[in-house]
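Hi R.,

Here's the input for the magnesium ion complex you asked about:
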Amino acid sequence: MSSSIKVENLSFGYHPKECILNDVSFSVAAGQFLGIIGPNGGGKSTLLKLLLGLLEPWKGSILINNTPPPTPRVGYVPQAFQFDKYFPITALEVVLGGRARNLSWAGRYSKEDREAAQTALARVGLSHLESHPFGSLSGGQAQRILIARALGSEPTVLLLDEPTSSTDPSAEAAILETIHSLQEGMTILMVTHNLSAILSHVEGILCVQGGAVMLHPKDVCEHFALGLYHIPLLETPKDHLTHHKKNPS
Ligand SMILES: Nc1ncnc2c1ncn2[C@@H]1O[C@H](COP(=O)(O)OP(=O)(O)OP(=O)(O)O)[C@@H](O)[C@H]1O
Ligand SMILES: [Mg+2]
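And here is the predicted structure with magnesium ion in place:
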């Protein structure tokens, strides 16, 4: 079962006089795949942290399946996960970390936890790397292991923050294929700077730059898909289309 997300008039800043997200409203239906784009510092990662309940909104509301965050069963793959390559931990142990909240008082994972972690590894197509040291994996494989880790809590919502940012194009394609294969039964929100790579997979594109505007993939012009933010993102989609009729690009 996937979840729906409803954000209404959300405002937030880290410091009292500096608003980072201003009056953001959007909704995502259960099972949809939403791309989140926008310039550096626009507030994309901040928005995901608000959805996770790691930050408290100044104003407005967030509902995930009619419940305010923190909501159980929301998986998260953070931006630029830092990891000591020499730390001796296997791929399976990294995935098991996603079930840490289930740990017994003795700090041991149950058989059920191991099975869930193995299922998550299979879902990202990396069962064969189960006992490999995490530090020996390629960037793309490591990123897919981190996705499996986020699947460990059996989420109905998956939030991914630039999961392909440090990978080459072939690894990126494998990661996107993995994410796409997870879409059934899950609502997915993915921050990316590579809009053209996800355009054919997503049902909506949320442009975040202080505020937020939802676009339909068919309304995204070629320049935009290439990451050239040449129009103010905060024009309404209707204005945006009119603008393009007047000034075809
Ligand atoms: N913990 C923090 N404390 C204070 N300011 C912060 C904090 N985290 C982020 N910011 C500021 O909030 C703004 C939005 O940051 P955020 O990380 O959400 O942007 P982003 O859209 O994810 O950018 P990028 O594309 O570079 O990842 C930036 O100006 C950033 O400096
Ligand atoms: Mg970010």
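One thing worth noting: Residues 81-154 form one domain.

Cheers,
M.
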